[in-house]
Design a protein that fits this description.
By secondary structure, the chain is mainly beta. Helix content is 14%, strand content 50%. The protein has 3 helices and 12 strands. The strands form 2 sheets. Strands 9-1-2-12-11-10 form a 6-stranded mixed sheet, with no helix packed on it. A 6-stranded mixed sheet has the order 3-7-8-6-5-4, covered by helices on one side. Strand 4 and strand 5 form a beta hairpin. The longest helix has 12 residues. It is globular. The model has no long low-confidence stretch (mean pLDDT 91).
């Protein structure tokens, strides 16, 4: 029986590598102006204009206990919520077998991580894009 594989986007945010399932990524944008919003938490940078539609820009690092990024690179997340994550650098798309993924239990992961995998002798954390979307929706309300 053939084992399923999955493709992941490995990227850098700040100075750490993270990943997202490639099917949760709609597009990667660079050097798009951000329009600040008043009275929002520090993890929401504002909105950017993507084909005439506003997309909320979330910097995941303040939510993960790190310093905010000054990058102009964004991952547009798949879905109707119109959210993108600010990142520092794209590393590569990487395909691995499902058996090589390590999923966390809810207690050990916190809400922002779902698991990890080994990539070039480094453990890469898998981000939970839905957790960032939910936090952004609460922050903008």
């Amino acid at each position: 029986e053939e084992e399923n594989s999955q493709t992941w986007l490995v990227f850098v945010a700040g100075n750490k590598k993270y990943s997202l399932l490639s099917s949760s990524v709609q597009e990667i944008l660079r050097n798009v102006p951000i329009f600040p919003l008043p009275f929002v938490p520090n993890y929401i940078d504002g909105v950017l204009n993507r084909y005439g539609e506003p997309y909320a820009v979330i910097d995941p690092l303040p939510l993960l206990g790190e310093q905010p990024q000054s990058s102009k690179l964004f991952i547009v997340l798949q879905g109707k919520e119109q959210v993108c994550l600010k990142i520092t650098e794209v590393v590569e798309f990487f395909t691995i077998l499902e058996s090589e993924l390590k999923y966390f239990s809810n207690s050990e992961a916190g809400k922002y991580y779902v698991g990890s995998f080994s990539f070039k002798n480094e453990e890469i954390l898998i981000l939970n894009p839905q957790a960032f979307i939910e936090v952004a929706e609460k922050g903008v309300e």
